[in-house]
Amino acid sequence: YQSDVVYWLSHIINAESGNQPLAGKIAVGNVVLNRVASSLFPDTVYEVIHQRNQFTPVTNGSINLTPNAESVAAAKLCLDGANTIGNALYFINPRSAPNSWAARNRSYVATIGAHAFFA
How far is the C-alpha of 28 from the C-alpha of 10, rounded, in Å? Predict the structure, then answer.
């Protein structure tokens, strides 16, 4: 693994879904990697995560918290090809963002833990 990719992927997984089941952690990682692969988003994990107004943990600083062991494992599983959410490019917590842009404009894929995922 590239250490910087594991570092940033595990940090965003932990910040967004550290208290979620492993499948949810993998799904968050999948969204980041799906964005890297998409022509609609930047080309690196770091750039996707730090793209303006995309991930709240970058804005509020929780991206800098040390990830738990399961978040690091989830990042590595994602990089090994594990995928629990298909081609989803967005996720939200419907309880905190019930009328989000993604919910109104993108195709619903699934809910895992506290997150709804959209393609």
Answer: 10
As given in the structure block, the two tokens for residue 90 are 């967005």
In three-state secondary structure terms, 36 is: helix
| Over residues 28-32, mean pLDDT | 98
The pLDDT of residue 98: 85
Distance from C-alpha of 89 to C-alpha of 36, rounded to nearest angstrom: 10
**DSSP single-letter state for residue 18:** T
Summarize pLDDT for 4-24 with one digit per residue, the tens.
999 999 999 999 999 999 999
DSSP characters over 45-111: HHHHHTSTTT-HHHHHSGGGSPPPHHHHHHHHHHHTT--SSTT--EEE-TTT-TT-HHHHHS-EEEE
